[in-house]
Amino acid sequence: TDGISLTELDLSGTGISFSNIRLSPALFPNLQVLNLRSCYNLTDDGFVTFLSLTDGRLRKLNLGCSNITLSNIGSQPIRFSVLEELVLDFCDNLSEAGFISFLEKVGGDLKKLNLGGNSLSLSCIDSLTKRYTKVEVLQLNNSLNLSETGFISLLGKVGDNLKTLNLQASTISLSQVDFL
């Protein structure tokens, strides 16, 4: 079989974890949009296993309001070469290292990045080796731990074509930023 021809899959708000999933590789070779928002039972291992079924063609990925940490993503052979939109807002358990490892796997087509409501400080963002010059929308609203240096470094990685920046209800002081 060539897999399922499904291009969009919305599992938001479900109790799915993917922890015991046993399906053939590349089952969803045409999947471009995956919405796992508010899947509180989603595990890192289950998420990685499911991603192996998508054949790396995702354009939009929403993991918002999940308990995902992405702590094991760095060691996985997964790539997101055509990802355009990444939503990781209100992921309370998202780790700094996991986020950076995830971004290292994303290709240069990223246009929208939503990190609002996370506890990330982004103080280690300088370790990110890639730049994302196509990002047009950056959501950092409700970012209570965002460091000023992390913010400035992130802008250096994504700021070339930025059109929309949301810092609403963030506690960043911006005392070192003189270009906004």
Structure at a glance:
With 180 residues, this protein is an alpha/beta fold. Helices cover 16% and strands 12% of the residues.
Characterize the structure shown.
There is one protein chain. With 180 residues, the chain is of the alpha/beta class. Helices cover 16% and strands 12% of the residues. The chain has helices at residues 44-51, 96-104, 148-158, and strands at 8-10, 33-35, 60-62, 85-87, 112-114, 137-139, 164-166. Strands 1-2-3-4-5-6-7 form a seven-stranded parallel β-sheet, with no helix packed on it. α3 links the parallel β6 (137-139) and β7 (164-166). The N and C termini lie far apart (53 Å).
Strands, helices and their partners?
Layout: E1 8-10, E2 33-35, H1 44-51, E3 60-62, E4 85-87, H2 96-104, E5 112-114, E6 137-139, H3 148-158, E7 164-166
Parallel strand pairs: 1-2, 2-3, 3-4, 4-5, 5-6, 6-7
Average residue-wise pLDDT: 90
Q: What's the shape?
A: globular
Radius of gyration: 16 Å
Structural class computed from helices and strand pairing: alpha/beta
Q: In angstroms, what separates the terminal alpha carbons?
A: 53 Å
Strand order of the largest sheet: 1-2-3-4-5-6-7
Query: pLDDT below 50 for ≥5 consecutive residues: which ranges?
Result: none
| Portion in beta strands | 5-15%
Secondary-structure element sequence? EEHEEHEEHE
Q: Give the % helix.
A: 10-25%
Give me the count of strands.
7
Largest sheet: 7 strands, parallel
Instruction: Please give the oligomerization state of what you see.
Output: single chain
Q: List the total number of helices.
A: 3
